[in-house]
Design brief:
The protein has about 140 residues and is an alpha+beta fold. It has a single domain, classed as ph1033 like domains (ph1033 like fold, Roll). Helix content is about 20%, strand content about 30%. Strands 1, 2, 3, 4, 5, 6, 7 and 8 form an eight-stranded mixed sheet that branches. A hairpin with a 7-residue loop joins strand 3 and strand 4. The protein is globular and about 45 Å long. The two termini are about 10 Å apart.
């Protein structure tokens, strides 16, 4: 049975990964990516536009399905060796989280709703994933 996840990264990093067909979390750490299995679904939440940026964005920026294969390491050429997973990204539009906060089981009724996102990868319930996908205009594969 597939699981559903929210991954956290700046929108700039998510857009790069989406264009190249991969995901990274927690600054390229492998351990969180090992929790994912092929067929799992992942949605990215981007608190900011750029890594280290201070202006809030608070938007869901990508949604897709983890492809076959496990985490793999790449050499960015500058000594940075992050781990990645391949993802089949769906057609979707970026969507602000604010209108969904009271509807998502993960955030409803919580004044500190952003706390779970600090971990970089959090499992979510199927209804939450479907709600986000609908808001993003994404068609989830069955």
């Amino acid at each position: 049975m597939s699981r559903n996840w929210i991954a956290v990264a700046s929108a700039e990093h998510v857009r790069h990964g989406r264009a190249e067909g991969f995901m990274q979390v927690c600054h390229g750490k492998a351990a969180p990516l090992r929790r994912l299995r092929p067929g799992d679904r992942v949605v990215y939440y981007s608190p900011t536009e750029r890594f280290g940026g201070s202006a809030p964005l608070r938007t869901f920026t990508a949604i897709g399905t983890v492809r076959d294969g496990g985490p793999y390491q790449v050499d960015m050429g500058d000594g940075f060796l992050p781990f990645r997973r391949d993802v089949r990204w769906l057609d979707a539009h970026e969507t602000a989280i604010a209108p969904l906060l009271g509807l998502l089981a993960l955030t409803a009724g919580k004044s500190n709703w952003g706390y779970p996102f600090r971990f970089g990868l959090v499992e979510i319930a199927e209804p939450d994933l479907r709600l986000i996908a609908t808001a993003m205009g994404a068609m989830l594969p069955e």
